[in-house]
Amino acid sequence: MKLGELVKNPKGFKITGIYRISRFEVKTARNGKAYGDCLISDHSFEVPAKYWDIPTERVALFQKNGVLRIDATLDYFKDSPQLTIESVFLPLPAEVDQSLSSLGMMAPRPIDDMYVELKSIIANVGHEGLRKLLTGIFVDDRQFAEKFKRHPGAVKNHHAYIGGLLEHTLEVAVGALDYCKRNDKIKRDILLAAALVHDIGKVREIEVDMLGMGIGFTREGKLLRHISLGLEMLESACQSVGLEAEISLMLKHCILSHHGQAEWGSPVEPMFLEAELLHYLDNLSAKTEQFYREAERAEPGGFNKSATLRREIYRPGWE
Ligand SMILES: [Fe+2]
Ligand SMILES: [Fe+2]
């Protein structure tokens, strides 16, 4: 059961399922006994849960695992749902993967399929220098490629699940390819390369938990953010393949300007067509995922007050 559906049920309702443990602490109750104070979550909701008189061996289970099978009873505290955990079990690895997708914590499309598509897009880049650059970053650098494939697109904002960064990057790149088909004035290879590298800095900006979900920013992520980190990564990749100066300069500008304006984190506004298009395509992918997810949290025909989009989002009653 999705946690957002809990509130439809009365106090005493029994729930069983595999959930993410997004916070866990051992505390001492008034009777002097230890209890587990946790937050369990799926993609859309977080619910506080208490595990009274927690056995010692169960504490280790919570500390070592990001996902557990939980049996709990529903209660309400000041009208908000709260769970009392009866027991927890370690799920099988296959159950974990299946649950991550059903809880919306994994990109809907298999990561390996998306990676194959990314490699075929790179193989079709006409400009040899750019193709070399992209192959160097996304294929030859195994360590980066493995991280990039599973990385979330954000902690909360959009594509905030395992494989979200790859999914978002592909959406921007495929959007760019489609748009170029209708307009031959666009420098296709520049736009495509810019689409693929625009968020590479997120791999160093976002800190992930043992499952691969974003839990906050790394130290360098907080201090430098993904635009500066991406610029640094691109700079060294351009140098190692000896990319011509003008193309490297254009790509760097695309990374710097992709958020569009200073208040959204870009130190410069887009100053040529491909940079401007990248900004719109990036926004288009982000907004599509945000609207879809925020509407999902409402009932059909109802509204959800979205903190991310700073407005109420309507879920059409017609589906
Ligand atoms: Fe970005
Ligand atoms: Fe992006």
Automatic annotation (TrEMBL):
Transmembrane intervals = none
Q: Does this entry carry the keyword Hydrolase?
A: yes
InterPro entries, alphabetized: HD/PDEase_dom, HD_domain, HDIG_dom, YhaM_exoribonuc/phosphodiest
Enumerate the Pfam families for this protein: HD
Q: List the molecular function annotations (GO) for this entry.
A: hydrolase activity
Q: Where is the signal peptide?
A: none
Q: Does the keyword Hydrolase apply?
A: yes
Question: Which keywords does UniProt give here?
Answer: Hydrolase
Which EC number(s) does the record attach to this protein?
3.1.-.-
Q: By its UniProt entry, which PROSITE patterns does this protein fall under?
A: HD
In this chain the HD domain maps to: 165-287
Top-level class of the enzyme under EC nomenclature: hydrolase
Q: Which NCBIfam families match?
A: HDIG (TIGR00277)
In Swiss-Prot or TrEMBL terms, this protein is called 3'-5' exoribonuclease YhaM
